[in-house]
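ugh ok fine here u go
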Amino acid sequence: MKIATVGAGPGGLYSSLLIKKADPACEVTVFEKNPRGATYGWGVVFSDTTLTSFREADYRTYAEIVDHFVMWDAIDVRFKGELVRCGGQVFSGISRVRLLDILQSRCEELDVDLRFEREVAPGDLADYDLVIAADGIHSATRAAHAHQFRPRIDEGRARYIWYGTTCPFDSFTFVFRANDHGLFQVHAYPFDGRLSTFIVECDEQAWRAAELDEATEEESIAYCEKLFAEELRGHGLMSNQSRWITFPTLTTRRWHVAAPSGTAVVLVGDAAHTAHFSIGSGTKLAMEDAAALAHSVGEHDDLGSALADYELVRKPVVERFQEAARQSQSYFESTARYLHLDPEQFVFHLLTRSGRIDYASLKLRDPYLVERVDRWFAVRGRAEAIPVAAPPPAFTPLELGGDVVANRIVLAPVSTYTGHDGQPNDAYLEPLVNALESGAGLVVTDEIAVSDHARITVGDARASIATSTSTPGPGRSRRYPSVLPNSRPASTTAVPEDRRCRVPWGSTGHLLRGHGRCSPPPPSPMPPTRSRTS
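structure:
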């Protein structure tokens, strides 16, 4: 089989060498329009999970990558003059130039034909059985078949610029700093022991207020060096064709098509998808695409089946990453709204922004940080001393509407609709009693009618009766007052009069129609609820 790979980035090189390794009889040629060693960007970050997949795909490549890694296990957040460190976050960084050199050498070792400074048009590849489009987000190969791939690009709202620095950071570092122009934030991490990546990000308003939209490359560097002089510790910033841009999120409807010549075309990496840099998954996703593509090609005799299998396996994985990346991107595009938070709360919110890390997983990674957050949470807004051992967040008090609820557990018992003439009976009250005695901080009742005409069924409670303490009834002298809808910790849902004649889902109560109290309701100005009209 003849295979042409367009683009000599990590995804294109890795897919080429893995396919060639699996089937040495394949003729694999890589076309790259840039000179060898030319690249945009500085460092590449991988998690420990990603490294495991590399080891399984090609141990020789994995071993050499690991030999050049810089590893760390912490995330530092600098906010409001404080430094908060979160441990247990294992990452590895490597120079992008070094990674490309490793992959290029491995390709040549396996007799993959590398052709640099060779730009090819889609029509030049009609003699190949398979074209692997790994030519990035601005892929000319994808554009030639855009009506089949159906790409979509959504531009981000923030501006960012990608720098390098000689400052040797020892962790993944976030910096948040506001000045007269607005809020600026930094994503920085080491990658080879000497250099670090230093990404500066801000919103459109701050970018224009600082006149960075008109600044030269040197003026932008000078501005950022002055703003983050404390973190750079006397080191400067370095540019590699660095410019202020917005992040484009690319999605494609299909990942493989057939060209008019009959050649199969498949997308890999940024040619198929992008994910915001704040979750550090661009190169990871491209190389995992490559591994999945090589595996599918090796597992199927028919090329069409192999490409279909590749898309079915990878596309859902990438879509989940893109959703997490969107959450992360949205967070960083609107960080200014969180500046009022205390450092502990801000850091917890930052680390859990994408949904991939939650309270439980963060506690496994760094129990000391979560304990610090729990203590802050337990005494927030109170004059009490910090507890020796903070209670779980669910059991901390909650200020709600001027009242303080003992804990944050809320129960809503299933409604029985067994009251009589607006008066709750034992069967109606028993679920509420059980919920209140369970220790929940708040119990929410079912709908309570504000008037006799607003009741939904004959089994509903009416506010004027349900809130009365007179004649509680046999067997309810002790417990009845504790479940009154207007008594803490119970909360009620009122039903206005124009919502009468509606039956809640699952209701077995009889409608009030026929009792002389129901008439067709007028159009309601309120939004619809989960109910069905009688």
